[in-house]
Amino acid sequence: MKITDLLKKEGIKIGGTCKNKQDAIDQMVELMCKEGNINDPEKYKKAVLAREAESTTAIGEGIAIPHAKTDAVSRPGLAAMTVPNGVDYDAPDEEPSDLIFLIAAPNTESNVHLEVLARLSGMLMDDDFTDALRQAKTADEFLAVIDKAESESEAAETAKASADNGLPDIVAITACPTGIAHTYMAAEALEKQAKAMGLSLKAETQGSVGAKNVLTAEEIANAKGVIIAADKKIELNRFAGKQVYQTSVSAGINKPEELINAIVNNQAPVLDGTAPAASAVTEKQGFAGSFYKNLMNGVSHMLPFVVGGGILIALSFLIDQPGLGTSAYGSSIPAAAFFNQIGNAAFGFMLPILAGYIAMAIADRPGLAVGFVGGYIAKEGLSFAALTGGAAISGGFLGALFAGFAAGYITLWLGKVFSKLPDSLEGIKPVLLFPLVGIFCIGALMFLVNP
Predict the structure, then answer these.
(1) Lowest mean pLDDT among 109-113, 214-218, 401-405, 430-434
(2) Catalytic residue list
(3) What would you report as the CA-atom Rg of the chain, rounded to the nearest whole angstrom?
(4) Where are the domains of the chain?
(5) Which of 172, 291, 402, 425 has the fewest CB atoms within 10 Å distance of its CB?
(6) Cα 39 to chain center, whole Å?
(7) How many CA atoms lie within 13 A of 414 on its CB side?
(8) How far apart are CA 182 and CA 52, in angstroms?
(9) In what side-by-side order are the strands of the sheet with 243-247?
(10) Mean pLDDT along residues 433-438
(11) What is the percent of the chain with per-residue pLDDT over 90, rounded to a whole number?
C-alpha cells in the first residue's frame, strides 16, 4: 500500500484559508468526508478534537497532523491542505501551521495502513519534501511530490537495511497514546540528528501496529545510553545499568540534539536494576502530566472489559422481549440470562483492572497485585463498618481510582524500605515481600476509607 492509495485528489485543498484551529479541523473533516472514508462525521470530529485536547498535534516547522482512530471511520484515509497564510494551531514553536495532514484510522485489528502513515510521518521531517508540498499549485502536483519522495524513501530504507550491520551508539524508544504519527516522527528526528552528529542511533517505535525496529539485547548492551521519548508507560527493566533519559514524544521531535547530548555527555542517570520505575526520569512532567499518564494506563486496560461486557449486556436486553417491563428484564429467559451473566462477569473485572494498571504505571510490576486487590475491595465495598454489621457500599469508580493511586505509591514507599534489606533477599522481594506487605497495607487502608 502506498500513501497515494490513502490520499485522493478530492481530499486535497491547495491554498486554503482558516480563521482558527477549529475552522481548520472543520475544513479537514469535510475533505475527509468527500473521499468517502467517514460513516459518522460528527463522531469522527469529536475523536479528532479529543486527541487535540490531550496535546496539540502541531509539531512545529509549520506542520500539523491531526488524527483519530475510531469506528466512525469506514476505511483508512488521508486529507491534506496547504494554508499559505498559516493558522494558529498551538504549535510548540508558536509559529503558524501552513501544511496540515488529517489522518483517519478505523478501529480494527488490520493495521497495514498504519505502516503507510508511519512512512509519511517520517517523510514530513524532510524540509525539502515539505517545501515542495507547499509549492504545489494543484492536487496532481501535490500527489506527484509524495509519489517521488515515497519511492526515494523506500529505496533509502532498503539500502540502509542491507548496509547497516553495526551496533548503534545510542538506542531510543518513541511512543504516543495513539501511536499513529508522532511516534514515527520522533524516531525519524532522533535518527536524523544522530547521523548529523556522526553517531548511529536506533529507535524502536511502539505504535498502533505494535513494536517495530525492536531493540535487541546486544544493541542495548553496546549502547552508551537510552532515550525514552514517550507519552505512555514504557517497560524499562531491559535497560537496567544503562543511562536512561525519559521525556515526552514532542521533545523527541523538537529537541533531538538536546536529548542526544544528554546521553553523550553522561547527563542522564543510570537506571538501577532493582527500582526501574523510580530512577529513570530526568525531565519532570509535573503533577498533572504524571497523573494523566498513570490514569490513562488504567483506563486503556479497563476499556476492553467495559466495551465487551456492555455490548453483551445490551444483547441480553435485546433478546429478552418476553421479560420487557418486568423486574427480571434482561435475564428472564435462559438465552438472555446467558448473555447477561457473561457481560456482568466482564464488568466485574472493570474496577480491579483500572486500579491494578494505575498502580503498575506508578510502581511497575510490583504494584500490579496490590492495585488489583485495592480495586476489588473498592468494588465490593469491604470496610471495618461492614465487619460489625453495617452495609457494604461499593466505592465505585472513584474508590477504584483512589485504590490504584494509593497502591502505586504504597509500593514505591515499600521499595525504598526494602532497599535497606540485605542483597541476599533480593530474590524474594517481588514474589513475597511486595505482594504480602503491599496487599496488607492497601487492604487495611481501603477497609478504613471505604464508604
Answers:
(1) 109-113
(2) 67, 176
(3) 25
(4) 3-108+124-162, 164-279, 286-449
(5) 425
(6) 25
(7) 25
(8) 13
(9) 210-212, 201-207, 170-175, 225-230, 243-247
(10) 93
(11) 46
Q: What is the pLDDT of residues 199-254, one digit of tens each?
A: 999 999 887 656 788 898 889 988 999 999 988 778 888 898 899 999 988 889 98
Q: Which residue has the cell 514553536?
A: 93
Res. 113: pLDDT tops 90: no
State residue 288's pLDDT score: 75
CB 202 within 8 A of CB 234: no
Q: Per-residue pLDDT averaged across 399-408, rounded?
A: 94
Question: Mean pLDDT, to the nearest integer, of 422-448?
Answer: 86
For cell 553495526, the residue is: 166
CATH number of 3-108+124-162: 3.40.930.10
Measured CA to CA in angstroms, residue 10 lies from 13, 81, 428 at distances of 8, 11, 62
The CATH number that domain 164-279 falls under is: 3.40.50.2300
- In the block, residue with C-alpha cell 511502539: 206
Query: Which CA distances in Å does 391 have to 77, 373, 379, 398, 448?
Result: 54, 20, 13, 19, 14
Q: How far apart are CA 41 and CA 171, in angstroms?
A: 40
Between CA 115 and CA 191 the distance in angstroms is: 18
Which pLDDT score, from 0 to 100, does residue 109 have? 60
pLDDT at residue 297, as a whole number: 87
Query: Cα–Cα distance between 303 and 353 in angstroms, integer?
Result: 9
The residues pairing with 243 across neighbouring beta strands, listed in sequence order, are 225, 270
In this structure, what C-alpha cell is assigned to residue 441? Answer: 497495607
* The residue type at 410: I
Taking alpha carbons only, the member of 357, 342, 349 closest to residue 379 is 349
The Cα–Cα gap between 193 and 248 comes to 17
Give me the sign of the Cα torsion angle 247, 249, 250, 254: positive
C-alpha to C-alpha distance for 97 and 114, rounded to whole angstroms: 24
Q: Nearest CA to 126 among 66, 78, 177, 195? A: 195
Look up the pTM and report it.
Answer: 0.47
Spatial CB neighbours of 164, under 8 Å, sequence gap ≥ 6: none
203 in the Ramachandran plot: left (φ > 0), alpha (ψ -120 to 50) or beta? beta
Model pLDDT, residue 277: 38
In tens, the pLDDT along 251-294 reads: 899 899 999 999 998 888 888 754 333 334 444 556 677 788 88
DSSP sequence for 255-320: -HHHHHHHHHTT-SPBPPTT-HHHH-B-S--HHHHHHHHHHHHHHHHHHHHHHHHHHHHHHHHHH-
